[in-house]
């Protein structure tokens, strides 16, 4: 490189063979990063320290296959965890960079989706029926790819598309071009997945997609979108999923602010911001948050399994992240800050083939053709910006308008009073606990006692643990496969957690393990709180019927009676415990029940063949759906008291723990 002259620098990038990245993170500048490329196997291998022990800057492209580090399944295409070890960073004026980039459009050949519209609509139907309808999760993102041939030199294509995105896309978190041997990635990501700066971790869940009508969005058309139950619940579900991650990496659990609008050229999204404090290495933060539920689904582990069932090809870098690790000068704690946008709205060029992966978030009331349309809109956002398809035309001026009059900038739609009111009204439904500052201080009504949370593969347990600590409990989480009888017996309170799947599945090792935990605590009259899936397992062991719901309650807020007190609670269930409708009232007692068999225990067997227990049932008088149970040393709840949808979650959680203890 000869110097910071934009024209000369861009010319060297176009004609040379060195790897580079261009990143625009604000409205005035573009950062040029050059260096050497290193491919590594694991996030822990990202080379943040040089051979002399000095911190260095690294830009890493993290593929979706890295979910293997968390034990999740995926189609493994061998996409490398590619690191650009930065040797030089040059900030340049954005306008001068744009003027120096190639302007001529890049022609595409044989363009179209790899999965046609009808086939994608069929996938949507199957996911709703076979996955959401069978309790495998609340929402899932299934992708398809827009593909085309490109007869252009990769560097020319990359810089041409980068210029077009800078000129025609707006609202992006990062606009970037990364050129490394054999691979080009150019995109305008709207969404920061995770960042860490001076110990503050930030996540930015974005969901709900409003496709602008011809001529642009208006307050009236946007208001109709904001009133959509489907779009609202879709956003709440991804906020819940990212709060699970925040609770795993932040001592204070994470606080939500918003909602906000993310306005782009063809699309507008709704979003929240989550913030908390952490002392973890940024590579560990990245591992614990792989990957965003907005591009995978929830619960995360099962979402990866569902993706592998319904996507027949690997994802490559789609739904991974571009992670920039920058030395922060700290002498204690993490030596690097992290800035990591999600790799969406990105075009990839490999071996002369363009690929633009896009996905739709599928929920219980998704319309198959509506989700088809969403993928078209997302692909068009990238393709239109880079000039691969016609761009939207600006709305025509009114006939009486003065063509020489200055044009006033359009006010952001979020500033419209009606839009601002609609956005603010969403928070009236949410749990104040997650919207206020949090930092457990060890006090609380149950201080001095211990809790063991058994994770049944839904990281809602991290949020539950955070709430338990606020209530004073010294809390630890253990995976269902690692929960020993000794530690289950030792805890003052065991919380049997939620998870995906059918509670009646006799073939599932996970379900069997959770049954063992529940029955073991019951037989020892040891305090137990069972949540969602474990509530259903408890009900089944007490002889209460389990039935599938006619319509899954995934991400649904309901106001229910919990032993004499109304509570707004979030539900994520496909199955329910059920007693006879019309014959139950609040607090009715059923039992004694003798349907249980003593759990196997070679260490300290209990010489009892059965268990007599009387429990109270809190159920819907009309349907018989059981919302909560309580009895001697036991309590359970069908809903997720830890969810942002549980406005009365903390109060109800405290009441149920008090009953169990």
TrEMBL record:
Catalysis: reaction(s): chorismate + L-glutamine = anthranilate + pyruvate + L-glutamate + H(+)
EC number: 4.1.3.27
Tree of life domain: Bacteria
Keyword Lyase recorded: yes
Annotated Pfam families: Chorismate_bind, GATase
Chorismate-utilising enzyme C-terminal domain: residues covered: 117-378
Glutamine amidotransferase domain span: 452-655
EC category name: lyase
Gene3D superfamilies: 3.40.50.880, Anthranilate synthase (3.60.120.10)
Keywords: Glutamine amidotransferase, Lyase
Lyase keyword on record: yes
Family annotation (InterPro entries): ADC_synthase (IPR005801), Anth_synth_I-like (IPR019999), Chorismate_C (IPR015890), Class_I_gatase-like (IPR029062), GATASE (IPR017926), TrpG/PapA_dom (IPR006221)
Coiled coil: none
PANTHER family: AMINOBENZOATE/ANTHRANILATE SYNTHASE (PTHR11236), ANTHRANILATE SYNTHASE COMPONENT 1 (PTHR11236:SF49)
Protein name stated in the entry: anthranilate synthase
Species whose genome carries this gene: Microbacterium mcarthurae
Classification lineage: Bacteria, Bacillati, Actinomycetota, Actinomycetes, Micrococcales
């Amino acid at each position: 490189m000869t110097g910071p002259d934009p024209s000369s620098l861009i010319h060297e990038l176009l004609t040379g063979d060195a790897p580079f990245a261009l990143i625009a993170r604000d409205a005035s500048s573009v950062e040029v990063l050059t260096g050497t490329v290193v491919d590594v196997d694991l996030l822990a291998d990202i080379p943040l320290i040089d051979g002399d022990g000095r911190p260095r800057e690294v830009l890493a492209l993290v593929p979706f296959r890295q979910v293997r580090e968390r034990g999740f399944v995926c189609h493994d295409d061998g996409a490398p965890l590619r690191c650009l070890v930065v040797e030089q960073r040059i900030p340049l004026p954005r306008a001068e960079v744009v003027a120096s980039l190639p302007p001529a459009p890049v022609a595409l050949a044989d363009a179209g989706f790899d999965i046609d519209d009808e086939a994608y609509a069929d996938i949507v139907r199957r996911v709703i029926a076979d996955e959401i309808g069978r309790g495998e999760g609340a929402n899932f993102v299934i992708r398809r790819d827009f593909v085309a041939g490109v007869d252009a030199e990769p560097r020319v294509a990359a810089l041409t598309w980068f210029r077009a995105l800078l000129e025609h896309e707006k609202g992006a978190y990062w606009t970037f071009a990364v050129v490394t041997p054999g691979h080009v990635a150019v995109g305008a990501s709207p969404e920061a997945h995770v960042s860490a700066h001076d110990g503050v971790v930030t996540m930015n869940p974005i969901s709900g997609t409003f496709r602008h009508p011809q001529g642009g969005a208006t307050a009236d058309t946007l208001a109709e979108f904001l009133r959509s139950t489907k779009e609202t619940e879709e956003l709440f579900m991804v906020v819940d999923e990212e709060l699970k991650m925040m609770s795993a990496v932040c001592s204070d659990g994470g606080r939500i602010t918003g909602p906000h609008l993310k306005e782009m050229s063809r699309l507008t999204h709704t979003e929240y911001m989550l913030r908390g404090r952490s002392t973890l290495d940024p590579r560990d933060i990245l591992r614990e948050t792989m990957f965003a539920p907005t591009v995978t689904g929830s619960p995360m582990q099962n979402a990866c399994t569902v993706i592998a069932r319904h996507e027949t090809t690997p994802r490559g870098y789609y739904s991974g992240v571009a992670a920039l690790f920058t030395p922060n000068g700290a002498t204690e704690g993490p030596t690097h800050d992290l800035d990591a946008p999600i790799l969406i709205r990105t075009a990839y060029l490999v071996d002369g083939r363009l690929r633009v992966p896009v996905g739709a978030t599928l929920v219980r009331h998704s319309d198959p053709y509506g989700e088809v349309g969403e993928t078209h809109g997302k692909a068009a956002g990238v393709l239109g910006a880079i000039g691969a398809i016609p761009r939207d035309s600006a709305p025509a001026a009114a006939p009486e308008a003065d063509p020489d009059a200055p044009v006033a900038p359009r006010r952001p739609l979020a500033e419209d009073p009606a839009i601002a009111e609609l956005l603010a009204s969403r928070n009236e439904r949410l749990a104040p606990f997650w919207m206020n500052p949090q930092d457990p201080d060890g006090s609380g009504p149950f201080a001095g006692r211990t809790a063991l949370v058994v994770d049944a593969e839904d990281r809602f347990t991290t949020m539950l643990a955070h709430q338990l600590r606020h209530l004073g409990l010294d809390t630890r989480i253990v995976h269902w496969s690692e929960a020993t009888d000794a530690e289950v017996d030792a805890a003052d309170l065991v919380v049997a957690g939620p998870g995906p799947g059918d509670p009646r599945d006799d073939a599932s090792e996970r379900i069997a393990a959770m049954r063992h935990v529940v029955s073991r605590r019951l037989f020892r009259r040891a305090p137990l709180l069972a949540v969602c899936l474990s509530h259903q397992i408890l009900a089944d062991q007490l002889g209460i019927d389990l039935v599938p719901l006619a319509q899954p309650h995934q991400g649904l807020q309901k106001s229910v009676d919990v032993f004499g007190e109304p509570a707004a609670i979030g539900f994520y269930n496909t199955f329910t415990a059920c007693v006879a409708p019309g014959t139950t009232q609040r607090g009715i007692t059923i039992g004694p029940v003798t349907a249980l068999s003593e759990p196997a225990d070679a260490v300290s067997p209990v010489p009892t063949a059965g268990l007599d227990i009387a429990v109270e049932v809190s159920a819907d008088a009309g349907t018989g759906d059981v919302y909560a149970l309580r009895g001697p040393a036991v309590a359970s709840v069908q809903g997720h008291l830890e969810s942002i949808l549980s406005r009365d979650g903390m109060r109800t959680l405290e009441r149920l723990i008090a009953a169990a203890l």
